[in-house]
Amino acid sequence: VGLDGLAAGTSAAAFGAYGIIALIQDQTFLATFCFTVTGAVLGFLWYNSYPAQMFMGDTGALALGGGLATAAFMTGQWLVLPLIGIVFVLEGASDVLQVGYYRLTGGKRIFRMAPLHHHFEKLGWSEPQVVQRFWIIGILGAVVGTILAMEV
């Protein structure tokens, strides 16, 4: 189970980044798609922010992930996707690391709980604190990834 606003906020940053990249490449249809998704996700965030009145679910999250991967390949900038989507990478990697380490060490854990956002909750951060800090990381990753994509 995710946190209120986490997927929506980080997706907005990532789609915004690929929208800018597509615009610079004169891919107006792709840029329009990316900015439309950014706007839609920001509109959804109004109802999905803590305490959420509406939830995205796996279907919405998977659709956003598929759309983001498509934008990455259509711009030819798939190498910066792990940076632009840094929060998604950290969340997924924390699960893989936790399970692998748990099996290799016979029950020891790296994190208090996986995925990573739950680890920070276990450390005493409130849900809005975790989400807002992950948004900051996501925005920074999107900005740096966009700059790197323009350098190529």
From TrEMBL:
Q: Does the keyword Transmembrane apply?
A: yes
Keyword terms of this UniProt record:
Membrane, Transferase, Transmembrane, Transmembrane helix
Q: Which GO terms describe its cellular component?
A: plasma membrane
Q: Name one GO biological process term.
A: cell wall organization
Q: Which InterPro entries does this entry report, sorted A to Z? A: Glycosyl_transferase_4 (IPR000715)
Q: Which GO terms describe its molecular function?
A: phosphotransferase activity, for other substituted phosphate groups
Coiled-coil regions in this chain? none
**Topology of the protein relative to the lipid bilayer:** Multi-pass membrane protein
List where in the cell it is found: Membrane
Which Pfam families does the UniProt entry name for this protein? Answer: Glycos_transf_4
Spans traversing the lipid bilayer = 6-24, 29-47, 67-90, 130-150
State the name under which the record lists this protein: Phospho-N-acetylmuramoyl-pentapeptide-transferase
Q: Which organism is it from?
A: marine sediment metagenome
